[in-house]
Design brief:
- The complex is a heterodimer of chains A (about 110) and B (about 110).
- Chain A is mainly beta and about 110 residues long.
- In chain A, about 0% of the residues lie in helices and about 55% in strands.
- Chain A contains no helices and 11 strands.
- In chain A, the strands form 2 sheets. In chain A, strands 2, 4, 5, 9, 10 and 11 form a 6-stranded mixed beta sheet that branches.
- In chain A, a hairpin with a 2-residue loop joins β6 and β7.
- In chain B, the strands form 2 sheets. In chain B, strands 2, 4, 5, 6, 9, 10 and 11 form a 7-stranded mixed beta sheet that branches.
- The chains are: A mainly beta (about 110), B mainly beta (about 110).
- The interface between A and B is medium-sized, with 19 and 19 residues.
Chain lengths: ~110, ~110
């Protein structure tokens, strides 16, 4: 059973701070790693993907991957109230995307 | 492109009735996925198609669930008969590579 684990939160951070979201996965054969953002009542929206160990930056977002530790993280710099949402980690190996249950982030103004 | 289009957006039905959810994937995408999302279980893959062919339906919970993709631009997910525990948000997603998935707006199903 392929599993993706996330802390459900809520994770509360003040506006302007760095939010750190974490994810672990069980399948060592996983090849691709994704972060989706889901606002309440809306559909998941892809915000980042990473395939190789290390960091990948896109604007205020940085994805970090450590395959040896089977760990993926998402850092959001200069957090804004509009970043308040549920963040879903998704992992793909030889099967389609397997999602974690998500971490709810609340950015306090 | 208009993105993945699902209909209806909301469906309320009585237990025992047949429910049909519809999806139009992004043009040119070869993969189509049906997911179900609940608070308890999160986002679960029900079935996926590649080039209109069902590849893996191991996530379909019971024989009451069936899915078809008669052509590249249309898919349906049918529940017959529906039960209250089927209440959830059902998402259709499509992909050009089976890597990332682009989601439709979802259908919120309530079975009373």
């Amino acid at each position: 059973q392929k599993e993706v684990e996330q802390n459900s939160g809520p994770l509360s951070v003040p506006e302007g701070a760095i939010a750190s979201l974490n994810c672990t996965y069980s399948d060592r054969g996983s090849q691709s790693f994704f972060w989706y953002r889901q606002y309440s009542g809306k559909s998941p929206e892809l915000i980042m993907f990473i395939y190789s160990n290390g960091d990948k930056e896109d604007g205020r977002f940085t994805a970090q991957l450590n395959k040896a530790s089977q760990y993926v993280s998402l850092l959001i710099r200069d957090s804004q109230p509009s970043d308040s949402a549920t963040y879903l980690c998704a992992v793909r190996g030889n099967t389609p995307l397997v999602f974690g249950k998500g971490t709810r982030l609340s950015v306090i103004a | 492109d208009a993105g993945v289009i699902q209909s209806p957006r909301h469906e309320v039905t009585e237990m025992g009735q047949e429910v049909t959810l519809r999806c139009k994937p992004i043009s040119g995408h070869d993969y189509l996925f049906w997911y179900r999302q609940t608070m308890m279980r999160g986002l679960e893959l029900l079935i996926y198609f590649n080039n209109n062919v069902p590849i893996d339906d191991s996530g379909m919970p019971e024989d009451r669930f069936s899915a078809k993709m008669p052509n590249a631009s249309f898919s349906t997910l049918k529940i017959q008969p529906s039960e209250p525990r089927d209440s959830a948000v059902y998402f259709c997603a499509s992909s050009g590579t089976a890597a990332e998935a682009f989601f439709g707006q979802g259908t919120r199903l309530t079975v009373v």
